[in-house]
Each structure stands twice: as structure tokens, then as C-alpha cells.
Design a protein that fits this description.
By secondary structure, the chain is mainly alpha-helical. The protein has eleven helices and two strands, in the order αααββαααααααα. Helix content is 72%, strand content 3%.
Length: 246
């Protein structure tokens, strides 16, 4: 028989999640005190602490010593690690990530074309205006990520932004390798051309052109695909070696 406390704390967790789903709790809202929650749900303060720890583990609640527990201000981060783990456990591939990126970035670009001001589009495009030749690879990786993440933050769809946060984390694993291959092949101009094509289509407010630009920019072919296949093989070899050493 399970201890009563193991089910009592779940009542609090379910109640908090239900209030969030119904809009009764918002980002940054402070939860009632331990004593208030214990009284309301007729449970011990130990059960309340278990519930708070469970909500913290979900990324829903943040506790600040001496202040209390609050609904997180960064809900997008709460889905990041679990989805990344599921991606790895399900043997998903980079192509799966890129296929979804193409769909999401194309949708957001259409949103930008229909709703963003000219000034907003110009501020976004300014992020793609950097030195693609002389900038070190690690810095180029940051700048490339900054451009695409800023593009996605212009979406009016919160769920898209949350999903893309996870995709960006997964892409960080591969981005530097792709840029290194671009450098090795002396094709830095391809990255610049891809960004410029996206920006020009946004300026022209041409939905067909922006869809084509996103597809061309994010589709990996030839040596780029091969270098990432090699990386996956190296990662798998390292993982097996680590397992053998345990």
C-alpha cells in the first residue's frame, strides 16, 4: 500500500497545473505559502514541499529562498531537456530536426510578411549582416543562431516559439560542424547568400520566395550531409567506448 503522502502531494500538483491551464495562474505569479496550501488541501507541510519539488522538476515553478515559490517566467525552457532526451532515445536524425525547422521557419516568415513592420524586418536583417569570412567559427555559430532565433521570436504563436527553443538546442550540436565544413570547402558565401535570400524575400513580402529561400538554406546536401553522418558515427563510437569502460 502506498503511503498517503505519495498521493496527497499529487493533489496539489494537479491543482496548480489545472489553474495554469485555465488561466488562473500566469507567468511570475506567486504560489500561496506552505501553510496556506497545507490548510487548503488538508495535508502536511511535508506534502506541500514534495509538491513544490515536483513542480520545480517539471520546470513549472521556481523557488526563491526567503521569498517563496513562483510560476516560471521561462516556460519554454521546461520542455527543452525532456524533448532533447526523447529525441536521443528515439534515434531521431538531424534530417528530422531540419524538416521541422523548415516547416516552422517558413510559417513564421509568412507571419512576418503579413504582420511585421518594415522597421522590424530591417532590424532582423541587420543581424545577418556580419563578416562571413573573417569571423571565427565559434562566433559565426553564435551569430547564425542569433539570426534564426530572432526570426522565430517574431512569431505570434507561442507554441511555435517553445518548440523552436528545443530545436535550436538540438541544432547547436550540429551547427558548428556544418560551419567548419563550409569553411573547409571555402563556401562561406553560401551561408551569407542563404541569409540574404531570406531577408530579401521578407523585404519584398514574397511568401513563395521566402519558402524557397528557407528550404534552400536549411536543406543539407553532399559533403555537409556526409560530415554530419561522420559526426553521428563518432558520437556513437564514443558512447559505446564509455559504456565498455563502465
Amino acid at each position: 500500500m502506498k503511503p498517503k503522502s505519495s498521493t496527497n502531494y499529487k493533489k496539489i500538483v494537479d491543482a496548480v497545473l489545472d489553474q495554469i491551464n485555465h488561466g488562473q495562474l500566469q507567468k511570475g505569479d506567486k504560489l500561496p505559502t506552505e501553510l496556506s496550501l497545507a490548510t487548503k488541501f488538508d495535508v502536511s507541510r511535508t506534502c506541500v514541499r514534495e509538491a513544490i519539488k515536483s513542480l520545480e522538476a517539471m520546470g513549472i515553478v521556481q523557488s526563491i529562498q526567503g521569498s517563496g515559490s513562483y510560476i516560471t517566467n521561462t516556460p519554454e525552457l521546461s520542455i527543452n531537456r525532456p524533448i532533447c532526451a526523447l529525441f536521443a532515445l528515439s534515434n531521431s536524425t538531424l534530417e528530422n530536426v531540419l524538416d521541422l525547422r523548415i516547416v516552422l521557419e517558413t510559417d513564421v516568415c509568412r507571419d512576418i510578411i503579413r504582420n511585421a513592420t518594415d522597421d522590424e524586418i530591417e532590424r532582423l536583417c541587420a543581424l545577418a549582416d556580419y563578416d562571413y569570412i573573417g569571423t571565427p567559427i565559434d562566433r559565426q555559430s553564435v551569430l547564425d543562431s542569433q539570426f534564426h532565433n530572432s526570426l522565430m521570436r517574431m512569431s505570434h504563436n507561442a507554441l511555435i516559439k517553445y518548440i523552436y527553443t528545443t530545436l535550436s538546442s538540438l541544432m547547436d550540436i550540429y551547427r558548428a560542424r556544418v560551419l567548419e565544413e563550409t569553411w573547409r570547402l571555402d563556401e562561406n558565401a553560401l551561408t551569407r547568400a542563404g541569409h540574404q535570400a531570406i531577408c530579401q524575400a521578407l523585404r519584398d513580402r514574397d511568401e513563395a520566395a521566402v519558402a524557397a529561400a528557407i528550404y534552400d538554406h536549411l536543406t543539407l546536401t553532399g559533403p555537409y550531409r556526409e560530415c554530419l553522418i561522420e559526426q553521428d558515427a563518432e558520437d556513437e563510437k564514443a558512447r559505446r567506448s564509455q559504456e565498455d569502460s563502465l
